[in-house]
């Protein structure tokens, strides 16, 4: 949240955490574009701050890159999008939106990691001692729970429990060989809901 201007028109100083988040948000698009070769000077320009401010928040550029990888892998934004999907929409529409949110998250991870690998940069958040690895299982569980919540309006007519359906949908989505574009998600959702056989009735 952007701090409100104080009296006299000046915005209050950001906390260290707010400044870290702001710098990371400014860095990720540059990281995807330039990989680990992006300079702290360019990052500072994108963030609208002095280069020295970067080093008052991060020990060095490597720590900043680690923070960017951790941010890219954090599923929080995609999970919030899934949880905000209106339940009064048709189930197919709900699942399509959830799939798009999850694919956007995966694409973002791929873009960041690919850029780092291409420029021989850091490949994962746990690349340095003391860096906490993302809890992937916790992220998977949270995503499964979020998708399960989308089945709530149809719970009485489901053939399987919502969480089991969510696990099946999650697996189908990420083991399929479809192209990673929104228009290709529809058939996956359709087969998931209605099966592989055409209706003969």
Describe what is shown at a glance:
By secondary structure, the chain is mainly alpha-helical. Helices cover 60% and strands 0% of the residues.
Q: Can you describe this structure?
A:
It is a single chain. 60% of the residues lie in helices and 0% in strands. With 201 residues, the protein is mainly α. It has a single domain, classed as Tetracycline Repressor, domain 2. The radius of gyration is 21 Å and the shape is elongated. The model has no long low-confidence stretch (mean pLDDT 84).
Q: What's the CATH topology name?
A: Tetracycline Repressor, domain 2
Rounded Rg: 21 Å
Structural class: mainly alpha
Query: If classified by CATH, what would the architecture be?
Result: Orthogonal Bundle
* Total strand segments: 0
